[in-house]
Amino acid sequence: MTRTSVLSRIILWFNQTGSPPNFDRFAARWTPWAFGFAVVAMAVGAWGALATVPADYQQGENFRILYIHVPCAWMSLFVFVAMAIQAFIALVWRIKACEILAMACAPIGAAFTLVTLVTGSIWGKPTWGTWWTWDPRLTSELVLLFLYVGVIGLNNAIEDRRAAARAASFLALVGVINVPIVHFAVQWWNTLHQGETVRLIGPSKLDSSMLWPLIAMTLGTKAWFVGSLLQRARAANLENEAPKDWARAAVEASA
Amino acid sequence: MARAPSLLAVGRAQLERDLRLVWRRRGDAAQPLLFALIVVALFPLALGSGATMLARIAPGVVWVAVLLAGLLTLDSLFRSDLEDGSLEQLLLSPAPLAWLIAMRVLVHWLVTALPLLLATPLFAELLQLPRPLLVPLMLSLAVGTPLLSLVGAIVAALTVGIRRSGMLLAVLALPLFVPVLVFGSGAVVAASQGLPWSGAIYLLAAGLALALVLVPLAAAAALRIALS
């Protein structure tokens, strides 16, 4: 098989899966699998984190919140990058499914960011003695939340769905350039202000017996993101295509 | 077919038109200055008039006041042109849209930021800023405010079609303004602690050079998306 035919097959697959009826079938088929895998992985991870991992010699039982906090923190950035990639595809090749997918990413990423901030806050109270500190990572995470809120807000503010998705996609691209700049700026700013230097235990320093539940939770959150993304994108897709016959049939079939 | 006018001629025409429009409504143009003055005056009222405390917060307060004044006027960047239809003429014009937007941002900076920059010694005096810190403050504002205007233009272009965009505009612009505020205000704080402060200004200047090239293009793309 020649290379061009492989490439054209991939493009064909994209265009076929990207057409609204096919996308609906694709999403309806894979959503339960993603959610199922996520629940199993997170259940195993939670069991490992709560039952098998020994308590930390400094932080006691408090550190176990790491198994929620760290995967969510990774996801908050991962989802933003995923959103920006889809936004780029949506703007350059004008693929409708990617517009929908990019916009479906934003609320999920915002939720992961919020969970990161809240669990970090809960963790910070017994460990650092304060709910909030202007640590570079905390501050960047807060700015990240604002970026997500901006994308969601812009998407909701414009009447026409496709125009809204395109404008918010553009904002997501600007945002993804902004994230590292903010991170760098905030780090410089923190060294200037000489805030109390707080150190989280880095995941790399974790013992291997403590690591596998973290991996399970990470896989679980990734799969949850995929399931949630497909479900949200499917709902938005059906809403956009509501006047059409196949959409009505799809809704009635799954109702 | 008539030849398209040169970039310089187009730029000059656009500048003249925009400045004339501003001049016809001089009262509106004074608003950002008044607003910044009010914000600056609110801080001593809220925090008490202790000179040492005021001197410590002065750089941040002046920076935030300038930033908010710029944010307030961001909405007007393309709004009136959209309403009277001249924005569509800009899009259809043979001159590159990015160039026209660059001229528009220049007018925005001249009208909102330049008066604030000139009034900064007054603000500094009101907040008891030590005299030697005035130089870093003015320098950081001189480099930082064009950057704010430029970055704000992207957001203004994206939200131009939205009727009530006030709060949304602030939410969208805030994360993009954070690095500028951190480096701008940080330079003055570093100077007040006796640390080297020129590095932050250089970083702002580098950002400005990058933004001068890229932002008009990005804002033009955003405007086409918003009006498509």
Quick overview of this protein structure:
The complex is a heterodimer of chains A (255) and B (228). Chain A has helices spanning 3-18, 20-52, 66-93, 96-128, 136-157, 161-193, 208-240, 245-254. Chain A is an all-alpha fold and 255 residues long.
Q: How far apart are the termini of chain B?
A: 27 Å
Instruction: Report the span from N to C terminus of chain A.
Output: 43 Å
Proportion of beta-strand residues of chain B: under 5%
Number of DSSP-assigned strands of chain A: 0
Estimate percent helicity of chain B. Answer: over 70%
The whole-number mean of residue pLDDT values of chain B reads 88
Q: Which word captures the global form of chain B?
A: elongated
Structural class assignment of chain A: mainly alpha
Given as residue ranges, the uncertain stretches of chain B (5+ residues, pLDDT < 50) are: none
Alpha-beta content class of chain B? mainly alpha
Please tell me the total number of domains of chain B: 1
Total helix count of chain B? Answer: 10
Order of helices and strands of chain B: HHHHHHHHHH
Of all chain pairs, the largest interface belongs to: A-B, 28 and 29 residues
Total E-strand runs of chain B: 0
Assembly type of the shown chains?
Answer: heterodimer
Write down the Rg of chain A: 21 Å
Largest sheet properties of chain B: none
In this structure, how is the largest beta sheet of chain A organized? none
